[in-house]
Design goal:
By secondary structure, the protein is α/β, with parallel strands linked by helices. It has two domains: about 170 residues, Periplasmic binding protein-like II (D-Maltodextrin-Binding Protein, domain 2), CATH 3.40.190; about 170 residues, Periplasmic binding protein-like II (D-Maltodextrin-Binding Protein, domain 2). Helix 7 runs parallel beside helix 13. Strands 1, 2, 3, 4, 5, 6, 7, 8, 9, 10, 11 and 12 form a twelve-stranded mixed β-sheet that branches.
Length: about 350
Amino acid sequence: MRYILFLLTLLLCEAGTSSQITVLTHDSFAVSETVLEAFTKQTGIKVVFLSGGDAGTVINRAILTKDNPIADLLYGVDNSLLGRATKVKIFEPYRSSYLNTVPEELWFDPNGFVTPINVGYVSFNLDISFFENASLELPRDISDLTESAYSGLTVVENPATSSPGLAFLLTTIGKFGETSSYDWLDFWKELRDNDISVTEGWNEAYYGSFSRYGGDRPIVLSYATSPAAEVIFSSPVVQEAPTSNLFCKDCVWRQIEGIGILAGTTKQKEARMFIDFMLNPMYQADIPLNMFVYPAIENITLPEAFNLYASLPRNSDLVVLSPSEIEANQERWLLQWTQVVLQGRDPEDVR
């Protein structure tokens, strides 16, 4: 009944009008044209998307243009990037009346600047045939990636420019800590010495470096739903996923992604209406086969391929850091990572 009233409100309030809003988003964003057309038909509002690289790059762009915003909303802020975005006050607060359809555990912004839209799980994907042809066992823990047997086989994204890259950096901090005799910086030094490859974003890593697509790296930082995507888009058709997830204790990051209204927009009313629409079951049901992540609201029927090929991590696999902890330390963590991984410095020199 709530959504019937929502649709009626849109029809009554905006019938006969025409306007446009722009959404700044990352390159991996996708939505079906029929869904957007339904929103435009209901409201008279046309939605234009402006893509600008990986999520980290997009947020940096929004920060640089905050005094003269290039869009009305920004989609792609997640629980690892929230602090970077809100610290410089690029958003207007908005709490949708439909937020109560989202489980509270996904409300990652207590200040109400960003509305959760979907949730995914950042993990390593493994090219099964590569390991079979090489007579090499699949790694069972991310610690295995530092072993000589896996030298030159792993590709990750840069945490300064990529949301999955930042998610994995935070995962290593949660898993190895900062105060133990072997901490997260020691782990990254060993990865560096084991010839890890670092790309600027997910597309470059997955479609450029991953061995499934002509690269030489059979271990790629991606998402738990990527094996399902491999089956859905396979040609010729396959009956089993050609890739698998590397799940292990404290190895996976739950990435909650959302949208926020950019400060300075003159289209606040329209922007709020679009956020409400994104929490509509019609929009939420469209997410899995376009974004290959999970809807934020409950009771959405998932595609069969998700149930067959997209594994969900156990709770013990997940690393959790609070947004406040991330915000307080992210700048230092990124600097230390850069110094150790890209500049080749010793962890002892940067602690």
